[in-house]
Amino acid sequence: MNKILVFFMALAVLISMQACGGKEEGTSSEGNGGEASSEVIQSADENGKEDEESRNGTETEDSDFNQSQEEEEDEDVSAEEVPGVSELGDLSGYITLGTWEGINVPEKAEVTDELLLLKRQEMLASVAEQAEKSTAAELGDTVTMDYVGYVMETGESFEGGEAEDAELQLGSGKFIDGFEDALVGHKAGESFDIFVTFPQDYHSEELAGVKARFAIVLKKVTETVYPSVDDELARDIGYDSAVAFEDAVMLAVEEDVYVTNLTAVWNAVLEDAEVKEYPKEQYAYNVAYYKDYYISTYSYYATMYGMELGKYLEVAYNMTEEEFYSKLEEDSKAYTEDSLKRELVAYSVADLAFNREVSQEEYQQRIQGYAEDRNVTVEALEEEFDKETLTENIIWDKVMEYLYENAVFGEATE
Questions:
Q1: CATH code of domain 129-225
Q2: Which residue of 2, 219, 239, 310 pairs with 369 in a disulfide if CB–CB is 3.0 to 4.6 A?
Q3: What's the predicted TM-score (pTM) here?
Q4: What is the pLDDT of residues 139-167, one digit of tens each?
């Protein structure tokens, strides 16, 4: 399945610096008047995403930013000077594989009616409508509300805990645990209190672990209404017929389930492997790369607000520049160790399973599939990626297919 290529290339992109300090509080609001009040009860995952996501797509790699003065000289290595893990020979000195052929995965995801319904709704989102409802709010509904938060111990309201006409989709996870669930079952026009506890690792130290009461005025509840799909609607949204739309739904869910199971297999193989030693040159280069990338990225964010990096870190993340560099060093090493382990395991499996070989016939068949997935010609694909890169991706695909096909799903038996 050519989707494997897309999935495992995406894994490398998912590495982020979310662990590097607290979450950014942001400046936008879900209430009226542009107030930042509603930001305070956003979940730790959501708080701070808006500011950075609003700037996503802006290239930073070519920007001329000052780099860390603390980088060690042995980390100042260009990519051209460092061979990738794929270019190393015998990897047995770096990694010991555990079970890889026939790895046991206790549970296997399956296609269910619920998954099909959710995927169908996802694919119909562009033509769905919002309708007010008089019945009780359910997960998935959107509510409009006023709220004021109070610290239980003192009874006093707190800064950032108040908003008017705030909109929230229940189940989105945008607000702290317990807040959204507490709104389920209430109707428009009701006034009531809900009780929550801020998480211990909440970005605001003053509220971390604090028990709070929120006075809620629920003004409106709306639900998403999805249309029935006939041939005419199917054509409007890009499918030949209603049957073709349903086939696309099934295919999408099957791919999602496959990726879920493949991820479980891959994680099990990774967990069972043990790194003996990291390749020194690759380790130093990767650490330096992560550090440079995130210093550049956060320096760019600082310039967006007309601030020096140190001031931006203080305002947005409540951390000093010294704390930032210390955490950056720690996280860059952790990310490097994780990514190198993945490569070492993958290429070790490739060596054992098929001698890391890709025949010319296999190469042509695979890149034809990649080209079709990207809706380009083979010639265009080969202009965009060199043969070495495409071959490495084919090897990764073969590794994942081999591990999946030989995995044992279900409870292990003696």
A1: 3.10.50.40
A2: 2
A3: 0.71
A4: 999 999 999 999 999 999 998 899 999 99
